[in-house]
Structures are given as C-alpha cells and as structure tokens.
Design goal:
This protein has 1 helix and no strands. By secondary structure, it is mainly α.
C-alpha cells in the first residue's frame, strides 16, 4: 500500500509539474502572440491609412458628377440665405 501511495505521489507530482510547465508555455506563447497581434494591428492601421489616402480622392473624383448638382443646389441655398440675412445699411444721419 505504501508503494502505491508513493507511485500516486510521484505521478501526481509529475502531473502537476508538467501542468505548470504547460501553463508557463501557454502564458509565454499568449504574450508573444499578443505582441505579434499588436504589431499586425499597427501595420494594418498604417497601410490601411495609406490606402485610404490614395483611394478617397479617387472615389471623390469618381463621384463628382453625381454630387455636383447637389453641391450647386446647396451653394445656391447658402447664397440666398446669406443675402437675406444681411441687415440693410443704416441711413446716414443728417448734419445739423
């Protein structure tokens, strides 16, 4: 019975040791993977920003014929509202 207890104790100690070693590896690889993930996200933001800086003007010029009538109507409405909101000039005061 003592031998069985020793065998169980040794196997349990080995089991716990290897479980601890596995947890350390899992933590280490998780941290390394997180660093690679952050690096990938930063590079994705960089290249995505550059791609947007190239693509947005092209898209805007491509959509210009579609938006031009809308822009003209908005500009006309703005000009009318601006002209209507100006106060008339004050009448000059007659000198005595």
């Amino acid at each position: 019975m003592i031998e069985l207890g020793v065998v169980v104790l040794v196997l349990g100690a080995l089991w716990l040791g290897f479980a601890l070693l596995g947890a350390v590896f899992k933590l280490l690889f998780g941290l390394i993977g997180g660093l690679f993930g952050l690096l990938g996200a930063a590079l994705g933001l960089l290249f995505g920003g550059v791609a947007l800086m190239v693509a947005v003007p092209v898209v805007m010029f491509a959509l210009l014929p579609l938006w031009l009538p809308v822009l003209l109507v908005v500009a006309l409405a703005w000009a009318i509202a601006r002209a209507a909101s100006h106060r008339p000039a004050a009448a000059p005061v007659a000198a005595r």
